[in-house]
Amino acid sequence: MTRTRWRGLALHAVLILALLVFMFPFVWTIIMASNTTADIYRFPPKFTFGGHFGDNVRHVLDNVAFFQSMGNTAIVAVSTTALVLFFDSLAAFTFAKFRFPGRNALFVILLATMLLPAQLAAVPQFQTMAILGWVGSLKALIIPGAANAFGIFWMRQYFQNSIHDELVEAATLDGCGFFGTYWHVAVPSARPALAFLGIFTFVGSWNDYMWPLIVLTNPDHVTLQVALSTLNRAHGVDYSMVMTGALLAMIPLVIVFAVFARQFIKGATEGAVRG
Amino acid sequence: MTATATVSTPAVTAAPPPRKRIWSYWRFYLALSPFYLLFAVFGLYPMVSTIVLAFQRWDGLSARRFTGLGNFAFLVKDPTFWQSLENTVVLFFMSTVPTLVLALVLAVMLQSAVRFTNVYRIAYFIPNVTSLVAMAIFFSSIFSTNFGLVNAALRSLGIPQQDWLGEPWGIKIAISTMIVWQWVGYNTLIYLAGLQAIPKEQYEAAKVDGAGAARTFFSITLPQLRPVVLFTVIMSTIGGLQTFTEPQVMVGNSGGTGQSGMTVVLFFYRAAFLDNDYGYAAAIALSIFALVLLFTAINWRIFRGRGEDR
Asked: For residue range A80-117, what is the model confidence (pLDDT) as tens digits?
């Protein structure tokens, strides 16, 4: 028995080591954000938390419109997520539970769109934004991403497996219209799937970098990721300050993830194995 | 398409059901319309015009000029293009191979662990939901020459410091380290889910037959895991061939020393949005698409196996 016990300990030792490696960048970010750059650049470097976090935050706020860009990012991420959840689940429910002419053809088109890389559209998309007058506006980030094939596909799988046809029929007999059935039957039963899609969309939107970099031409109206990169460009030497900005930019994501972590991980792995 | 297309079961007794007019389905089409409208405006139309644009010269201001295959002819002679292609493929291998191997090892270990598995899962996954830009800045700071943590560690071991972000190989190591860090946990969870889907009886049967741990792994675990491995390889390919944020933040738009951090997507970004060479950028975009298709097809062949239709 002792031999299996030792093996168990060795196993956890390796797993904990991996955990420390994965966590290290976050810890080191906090250490950098709470010290001066000079402390970090000493040899050997300072490995403990310092008392300069407040100063660093002030430097960040002096150098970029941090709260404004965080506000922009929040507007984009929240509205994109809300629109995606609504449009994707509504379309997915329609595909999963109703028959109508052209259904299969439409679904095949939907699947095919998932194969196309985003860069293929970037240049003309920018021209479209120019024609619409959306260059520099947050609409250019929100509207094109308001519905996506992945989410529809993913929610459709869920609706097919989790909602019985009888339930839909019963709701119809009770006088629920199509949208009523969606709202009162489909949405409440799809909470876990919606939670996963919601976090996935929120994180993706919060972290989007290339498209905001292209389309948000006014330096005062950038998102957090673009603001961070300009902070890094312009003040590359003051790492403590830059890492403070990086830390602040991650906090909302960490909160969202912490709240929904279990559901999210369950959803992520299930989707992958089924898909 | 007409309404009759949906009538799949023949009516045996009664008269044929009354034909519904197509507009009676309007609610369904309305429910589906957001995606298709958005795709038409922001997906399909731009893609078609990218293809047209690839055969033109355009700086965004003057009139478009048709140049036939001119952009492509220039592309195949452009050393930067080949360099970016090589960098992308090298970075892809340098990051994907360690990522997937480490993920598989961790997943197998995590499967045999009994306690704290949820803690591990959540902690391993966190690198994947963090800010890419913030972490790219972080990795460029720890790889910085005079003050970076990596060099501090080397010096304390008596090894001379390296100019990580100033050397072609150093740039690639820094970028791929970041990609590995970010994606090992994600792939671990996916492999773990795949491992848990393998029927227990197969392992018991192997045990009865006297198969050792290594034999069991290569005869049962790995073959059963094949579809999941295919999934992770394809996802890594699509992601890896589109690497942009890491090099752009870590070494800048130039691609760094010797352009060794210049990926195809960074090259595309530069041509389109810094040089305003839209026709050329469109040709690069098409080559990225071709590259993704080629790699997906290759992976599909390798990991799906020949003649196996499962």
From this structure: 999 999 999 999 999 999 999 999 999 999 988 887 77
Task: Give the position of tokens 């790219």.
Answer: B136
B 135-154 near A (Cβ less than 8 A): 135, 137-142, 144, 146-147, 149, 152
- Cα Rg of chain A (Å, integer): 23
Mutation site for A-interface testing, chosen from B129, B140, B157 by largest number of A Cβ within 10 Å: B129
* Chain B residues near residue A199 by CB distance under 8 angstroms: 129
The domains of chain A are located at: 1-57, 65-233
Q: Is A204 exposed, middle or buried (0-12, 13-18, 19+ CB in 10 A)?
A: middle
Whether B168 and B174 have beta carbons less than 8 Å apart is answered as: no
Among the four given CATH numbers 3.40.50.10610, 1.10.3720.10, 3.40.50.720, 1.10.10.10, the one describing domain A65-233:
1.10.3720.10
Sign (positive or negative) of CA dihedral A221, A226, A227, A231: negative
pLDDT in tens, B196-255: 888 888 888 888 888 888 888 888 888 889 888 988 988 888 888 889 999 999 999 999
A171: amino acid identity, one letter: A
Q: How many CB pairs below 8 A link A and B? A: 261
Q: State how far the Cα of A267 lies from the Cα of B193, in Å rounded to an integer.
A: 11
Specify whether the CB–CB gap between B227 and B238 falls below 8 A.
no
Q: Which amino acid is at B85?
A: L
Determine the Cα–Cα distance for residues A124 and B49; give it in Å rounded to an integer: 6
Structure tokens at A261: 């972590």
Q: Is A49 on the interface with B (CB under 8 A)?
A: no
Burial of B199 (0-12, 13-18, 19+ CB in 10 A): exposed
Chain B residue with minimal CA distance to A148?
A: B35
- Are the Cβ atoms of A178 and B35 closer than 8 angstroms? no
B38 and chain A: CB distance < 8 Å anywhere? yes
Residues of chain A positioned with their CB less than 8 A from the CB of B181 = 21-22, 25
Number of structural domains chain B divides into? 1
Are residues B272 and A91, on separate chains, in Cβ contact within 8 Å? no
Distance CA B164, CA A233 (A): 18
Q: What is the pLDDT of residues A2-16, one digit of tens each?
A: 777 888 889 999 999
Asked if this assembly's ipTM is beyond 0.90, the reply is no
